[in-house]
Amino acid sequence: MSGNLEGSFLEDIIAHIDDDTPRLVYADWLMENGHDERAEFIRVQIQRARLPEWDPAQVALRLREQELIEAHGKTWLAQMPKIKGVEWLGFRRGIVAEVGFSSFASLQANLGKVRAAAPLEAVTTYWPSEGDEEKKSRKQPLSELRELTLTGRPWDDDVPKMAEWPQLATLHTLEVLGLAVEDLSALLASPHLSNLRRLRLSSNGIGNAGVGILTQSPLLLSLEELDLTGAGYYESYYDDPVINAPGFEMLAQWPGLASVRKLVLTGSDPNEAGLAALLASPHAAGLKELVLRNARIKGAMLPALLRAHPDLRLETLDLHSSKLDLQGMEMIAVAACLSELRHLIIDRCEIKPGMFTSYVEQSKHLGALRVLNVAQNEIGPTGLTALLERAPNSLHTLLVGDNDLHDRGVIALANSPATDSLLELDLNKNGIGPTGFAALTESEHMAQLLILRVHDNEMSETSQKSLQDSPLGQRLKVLGLKAPRREWGYMPPYDEDEDYYEDV
Fold it and tell me: pTM for the whole thing?
């Protein structure tokens, strides 16, 4: 490639960092000059960035992105200049723009070199440690910086000094780990955070006190995403305060919640009063994605869904590892705030066959659902059959691994026209034997299926080969016969379950 010409493309991308047009122009040039895969990768990542995660087009795009990364990603990253203390981590909308620095000192020392090679769009580094020389030189501009991730624990006056940086004014996303309550107060005193759109305070011990500080800030009135995953989520490692009912009530009264579309409260403990206050808040009416993973949600709390604000229409609800009962499942089924639900995550929720059947029979949102994750429950053949009888043709991803389906459930699935719309299906760890695999092999449905995972079942070599050689197996882009390994790139479901993966 022509270095000068490519440099001009890069300059244009940096100058218009939020605009896709220069990237697409660059992709056209790459295609004209024989770099088809690189051009395609740019277009695929741009397409993915424009679509919600539950959109059916995401499945094929994600697969192609992964194929291109596996085939070329390391090569593309290796083409970047080798700079001590700098690691090229990945791509944003097709361009190398994720950069890791070993320290703030490295960031300051190598800023010019990095920016000459790539847009400095997403930066990950550690908080400065005492004695770092960069404390003398924090004035260099970072005009194209959109994302900043800080890890480790801040020292002394690191947070107040960072809060003074004019460079923060360009940030759209700030992720801060290791923050204490007093540090949060100093950070949110910054006059430079008014452009922030995504604030991720995951793995911090801020608790209700931190929520109080956050909701009093006059600067955070345009947030689209707020992640308050507590350090308490990692209870084996931390003993920090958990956001509970008073914290939920403060969020409910916070005017800044009106702009938030994604709210993450993983590891919280709201009880029914806290959850009801949040859902009923007029400021929550625009919320589209609510993540309550490991949030100590019980079925008895979910009547709060019925008392939600009349304008609230969630598209994604994540209740991973909740303790749902029959009442809870029925509330999920009939709540008006879930009538436009696209993505439902209720894995590890102690769901029994009758509970799931009741949910399916009463559900007012199945017609809108695109992705359903009900893995690691006990829905059994009865629950699955009930779903297949009422499943909408819009459902494109079904994750039912570890659900005691056995051959009977898989036979019902293989013979159901409801599977004709599926693009991704997870059947791992279901006690499937030769009869069940034979049914999959002979199925006349699942014509659109791209991904099928069937690992950790009773699968002989004969059954495996038959499935691989069947029309279904030949159509698949991914046939998961073994538990996936932890690798760079897309991770399949249940990425928090250590025993789900092979040791690496």
Answer: 0.90
